[in-house]
Specification:
About 30% of the residues lie in helices and about 20% in strands. The chain has 5 helices and 6 strands; from the N terminus they run αββαβααβαββ.
Length: about 130
């Protein structure tokens, strides 16, 4: 058994399979999950695990070269917006409907227990060298 990092075997395995340019959608419980990508559903109950916990955990494991979120996050969820701005200074914002369209191209969807609106981000994997 791993003693550090992400312990969820489904998520740990899915992350190990990602390559440069692959998309990872981290989403709240209200985001429609697109058909096609591998889904790791971490939602236990409303708010558990939080969007912030999952994003922070993923960033400890992944190299991310870009991130896209919904424009609406700025007005509807100040906490998520601040978290995303802190982690991704070059955060790309698109309308929520466009984020849903882009999510269809993700290779992995990680569903959090977050129950506040627009706590979603599409990460683009980078390389460590």
């Amino acid at each position: 058994m791993k003693k550090a990092g992400i312990l969820n075997r489904h998520l740990s395995g899915a992350l190990a399979e990602l390559g440069h340019g692959d998309g990872v959608l981290v989403c709240d419980v209200g985001m429609p999950v697109p058909a096609g990508p591998r889904v790791v559903d971490l939602a236990f109950r409303a708010g558990v695990p939080s969007f912030a916990e999952v994003v922070d955990g993923l960033l400890a494991e992944l190299v991310v070269e870009g991130a896209t979120a919904a424009t609406e996050v700025r007005e509807a969820n100040a906490e998520a917006a601040a978290l995303l701005d802190g982690h991704f200074p070059a955060l790309r914002l698109v309308p929520h409907e466009r984020l849903k369209e882009l999510s269809a191209g993700a290779r992995l969807v990680v569903r959090t227990g977050e129950a506040r609106p627009y706590a979603n981000v599409l990460l683009r994997c980078g390389v460590f060298f």
